[in-house]
Amino acid sequence: MTPLFEPRLLNPPFGDPALYVKLQGEGTALLFDLGDISRVSAGLLFKITEVFISHTHIDHFVGIDHLLRLNLARDRVLHLYGPPGIIVNMTGKLKGYTWNLTENYPFMLDVHEIGSRSIKTRRFACRDKFKPGPVQRMPFNGTVVNNPHYCVKTRQLDHNGIPSLAYRLEEHCHININRDALNKLGLPVGSWLQTLKKNIREGCPETTFVSVPMENDSLPKQIPLGELVSQIVHITPGEVIAYVSDCGATPSNKKKIRGLADKADHFFCEAAFLERDHEKALNRGHLTAWQAGQLARESGAKRLTAFHFSPRYESLPDEPATEAMDSFYGK
Ligand SMILES: [Zn+2]
Ligand SMILES: [Zn+2]
């Protein structure tokens, strides 16, 4: 099975948070938090269509300038999701620059501010010198994005008195192609399989014809969707990725994290402190590596990556990850 999500942290675990999730076969990517990304190749960054911010501490948001600059001359809309205050934060950032030579640039940034009951959106268009557009409001029930491929859910955690959003990325279902069955039917591998998957995700009727280009230059075959689904498709549950950064180990936060990371295939969790400094961690609104491991285990996560280690432990570079894994595996 080829997974849809290919997650990777863009920086080492002592660096700024930025989790890049490539969507296989789609040519696009999602980003969770936006720390320093100046060393990341433009090719990777251009693929990003949606950015999800936990909170606007500088180590989680400083990369927005770099991403904006890269995209400025491109004809596209970039979506930025974040906690209460993100629209004011973005307005302030954009006001910090002069926009008199960019009137012909088509780039637009849609900023979605996730409140407790609604999502407030404002569009910032380059051709309007990034003056915020009218406010649009949508009801919010825990899900911020829902499209035929995946959905993104969020919960608001407490991070030393400010809201910090944790995210859960869920693929609705995973569509696997049986290559042996494909070969037996004499059908080629190719981009038509992406169209087939798209038709299934969008719930097209079984009678919809799928055009299958044939290798020997003969005319494409028109095969009903239902026939292909029964012969070459195997549908399995979708993948889940959970992302948590930054928050203290309060009872309320822990309960929300366990729900958000429930049975996640891959859980990315901040682990700023070592357990021996747990009082400092709580005072600063952060988790310890041991707590990250416990939360991952209690959530039933299959895999844990602990990250966002405090620079105070740089002389012991392996210790935070080892502590998190010992806790995760119940050692
Ligand atoms: Zn923070
Ligand atoms: Zn942080």
Written account of the structure:
With 331 residues, the chain is of the alpha/beta class. Helix content is 27%, strand content 31%. The chain has eleven helices and 18 strands. The chain has helices at 42-46, 58-61, 64-71, 86-95, 179-184, 192-201, 225-232, 251-260, 278-284, 289-299, 319-328; strands at residues 5-9, 19-23, 28-32, 48-52, 77-82, 108-114, 118-125, 136-139, 143-146, 150-159, 162-171, 173-177, 209-212, 221-224, 233-237, 240-244, 266-270, 304-307. Strands 1-2-3-4-5-6-7-8 form an eight-stranded mixed beta sheet. The protein is globular, with a radius of gyration of 22 Å. The structure holds zinc ion (2 copies). One zinc ion binds at residues 55, 57, 159, 246.
Mean of residue pLDDT values? 95
Radius of gyration: 22 Å
Beta strands, count: 18
Number of helices: 11
What distance lies between the first and last C-alpha atoms, to the nearest angstrom? 31 Å
Give the strand order of the largest sheet, numbering strands 1, 2, ... along the chain.
Answer: 1-2-3-4-5-6-7-8
Bound molecules: zinc ion
Order of helices and strands: EEEHEHHEHEEEEEEEHHEEHEEHEHHEH
Q: Bin the helical content.
A: 25-40%
Share of residues in strands:
25-35%
Structural class estimated from helices and strands = alpha/beta
